[in-house]
Amino acid sequence: MAKQASKNAKVKDTKAAAESKVWTKVIKAERSPKTGAYTFKEQIIHKDTVTEYFKK
Question: Which InterPro entries match (predicted)?
Fold first, then answer.
């Protein structure tokens, strides 16, 4: 019985799973001009805008 319930749960969330694949997590290292230390900025962005994010 439990196997059937988990199988049905997976089928219901296929649309949500497909939509979540277009998002990606980007980690960008930025150097501080004062200290020279690196800080890391994390952001979740759409796949199509990844190259534009790094041009900034």
Answer: DUF4295
Q: Which domain holds residue 33?
A: 21-55
Q: Does residue 28 contact residue 41 with C-beta atoms inside 8 Å?
A: yes
Q: How do beta strands 38-46 and 23-31 pair?
A: antiparallel
For residue 7, the model assigns a pLDDT of 59
Q: Encoding tokens for residue 6?
A: 């988990």
- The overall average pLDDT reported for the chain is 80
**Is residue 15 included in any domain, yes or no?**
no
Distance CA 56, CA 54 (A): 5
Specify the pLDDT at position 35: 94
**How many structural domains does the chain have?**
1
